[in-house]
Amino acid sequence: MPEQLPFPANRALTPGRGASTPSRPNTVARPLAGWAFEAAVRLEARAERRLIGPLMDASPWRRAVVFAALAASADPRRPRDPLADRAPADLVPWLLAGRMETIVDATFGPIPGLLRLIQRSGPEPFEDPRAYRLLARLLRLPGPRTRRAVRLLRRMPTLTMRDVMAVRLLPGELLSPGIVREVTSVEHAREIADIWRLLRRHTDLSPEAHRREMEGLNVARCDRLAMTLLQRHGKRLAPFEDDEHFEFLRNGPQFLDYRKIRMFHPPIEVARCAVGNTALARYRHGPYLVQLLCLTDGAGSDIETRSWFLADTHGIGCDRASGETLREIQGHLRARGILTLGLSHVPSTPARFARRYASALDTLEIYQAI
């Protein structure tokens, strides 16, 4: 027995082009719930005609179209219900037996391909009625991205609200089934888009190569995805120029050379450098890796006020830098406008007394003697 297609292959027999719902013997009644049930109850009360019962036994295509029409009245951001001009008593039989293409056009306007996508959503409504309006808005946008999005949505076995939101929020270069199927929420789609922009800024791969790499990894773990690709292909990871004292780590593979340093995790350090939290440099006059930290006013949003400070010195195969070496590193950095964080105290307080309490603070690393 051939595999049952989700929709008829013959366009002439497609329910969306017929005048009424085809008969479906042995159909299992599907109850309504959520916003769709509430909207149907309101319409039944105004029309004094049965809608919920017949809709429970309707075909998946008919249910999908009716849910899209009911979503117009349930969408709080829609300024006006496009079907409000029809008398409720006439609206119910029209929704149950009218031409589906006409119903969709009356609800959203004539948009090529919209009916077919709505019918692919199956017998259950989208979780949020606004998703139907967003789908229609997506198809109205001109350009190759829209054509690519429509082709992708048509390939989905069953169109879900998650698919619609993912296609709407993801960059056009990432519109592939392997990535869209892994998106779990709106926040997840936005995070993947943010990672895409970060990778485009710090790698030289082509968009196609980026997409292939992301498809081969688990996009459900965005943090691991970003760290893995940045470590493989990361570039331009330091905002400073090299000089006679410091050689900055700029490429992702360079970080692996320091993986034996205690508490140094190359994937995490690469990601921190890529987003601008830190910068790492090898000290040319000794076996030390210098870590710089970028700070700004945490109470504001003005990132232009950021400043760089010495955060740590890692010994490469040895202990941390001695006091004399550390002061040399601090002096070279200070000449470049990079300071070292340290606690201060009022002049009238003895240094030994102030140092005793400063040593109890673990929020700052103290490098300078008080």
Molecular structure report:
- Among the domains are: about 1-140, no CATH class; about 245-360, no CATH class.
- Helix 15 (about 325-335) links the parallel strand 4 and strand 5 (about 340).
- The protein is elongated, with a radius of gyration of 30 Å.
- The protein has helices spanning about 35-45, 50-55, 60-75, 90-95, 100-110, 115-120, 130-140, 145-155, 160-170, 175-180, 185-200, 205-215, 220-235, 265-275, 325-335, 350-360, and strands spanning about 245-250, 280-285, 290-295, 305-315, 340.
- Helices cover about 45% and strands about 10% of the residues.
- Helix 1 packs across helix 3 (about 60-75) and helix 3 (about 60-75) runs parallel beside helix 5 (about 100-110).
- With about 375 residues, it is of the alpha+beta class.
- The chain is built from 16 helices and five strands.
- The model is unreliable at about 1-25 and about 360-370 (pLDDT under 50).
- The longest helix has 17 residues, at about 185-200.
